[in-house]
């Protein structure tokens, strides 16, 4: 930052018994009150340069011995700003930079330290510094703009608007013309000599601005249409990451909600937390309204992050609806963890309804007519979303209290034709079975009906066959599919014998089924014991049916081979 030095005398201000004074042989004849601070000063240097003090002291008689009291409680910038102006009047050395320029300027204007009162007065010097130094600097303009906004908002247009224009002008310059320092801390980026300036070099510095000023700068940049939408989206992403903590990784935020709801009395801590929440809500809703409508201006992962924040801060329904709609259209860009949207009341529980709504908006795209190229793109996107959602199901399955009915409903949100393979779904179902060992046999069967055994890869099928958590019916289906694949792969040249491991598995499962059934029947009354034979017969029938099926498949393939050989022999004899 650039500095301007005014005055040359040493600083002789001191504090004694809560009173600020200046070392002098002349008694103080002017008492000035600024908020809670009392100043004992002198008329002579101050009245020469301050038009306001001249007017306030004009009714004082010359021979009056008592110091004149003056109250300046309304001075902008308070004690700090007043002291800068007072030291200037005494000729004491002061340094002006972008950090204190606004305070000094507003206070000098308030005290009417203009050229009409004295030549080379403070206001004119500050105006020169503003135009020649502050507006020419990148960080100086941002610091001055932020200070002016926080003190007076848009009312101080003589500082705010020129700073906005200066910042926008620099943002629109080609990166090759950027010759000033800037903040850029992206992961993996290391500044090296002669390295080219990144296109988004400006995004981190302007993220320091309050949301209203940030919106003014970005809106002005967008209005020029000189920068692409993804660059605007990156600026929004940087700002949101700085001011909106992700609830997924800040469990303490959700605890703030819980403490407020449990508190019976309104406390200062609760008020501060509610104020912070309201500020985050305002930032979020403003950022969402600024998202460009162009596809790809922001990423799907960023949209889902905003949705998590919206869920936490209690954003408006229109804001949440917009985020769900946009995130749904770009769901293929996300990861499974992005769909984990914590509930405001419990950071360990997830809002599956929001994730389901995002998926529904993604699927709604397929109901609209589209060109062949767009259909191909959407088909690729569907494959990605299936993998993402199955991984999401696997994560949800880790919740030991998640109801099976809701889990099945979630799994069935994707249409049957969407999944080209069921490997991911199998892993999600297996995780649910592992985390819910007390499921009834009926629930386990209902859950495993989600899996199409024909859509499992060979490795996953082999794993599933030996999985004790799978119901007997599912494993028998897996073995049938495995045998069909084996026979189909053999073709008409050879017949693969029945897989010994498959036969052993069937035998083991049949025996296990009989033992389990016997153990269960032992606990029943004698009236129900005769049914045991029926269960044994059914278990034996299942095994016999599979053996007959395997034998029939083998005999059929053998007949085909003999027919081929006879046909080949006749052709050779001819």
UniProtKB/TrEMBL annotation:
Protein name (Swiss-Prot/TrEMBL): NPH3 domain-containing protein
Family classification: Belongs to the NPH3 family.
UniProt domain NPH3: residue ranges: 200-485
PANTHER family: OS12G0117600 PROTEIN (PTHR32370)
GO terms classed as biological process: protein ubiquitination
Pfam families in alphabetical order: NPH3
Pathway: Protein modification; protein ubiquitination
Domain of life from the UniProt record: Eukaryota
Native organism: Triticum aestivum (Wheat)
UniProt keyword Oxidoreductase, yes or no: no
Gene3D superfamilies: Potassium Channel Kv1.1, Chain A
Chain intervals for the UniProt region annotation (Disordered): 512-574
BTB domain segment(s): 28-98
Keywords attached to this entry: Ubl conjugation pathway
Start-end of Basic and acidic residues biased regions: 513-540, 558-574
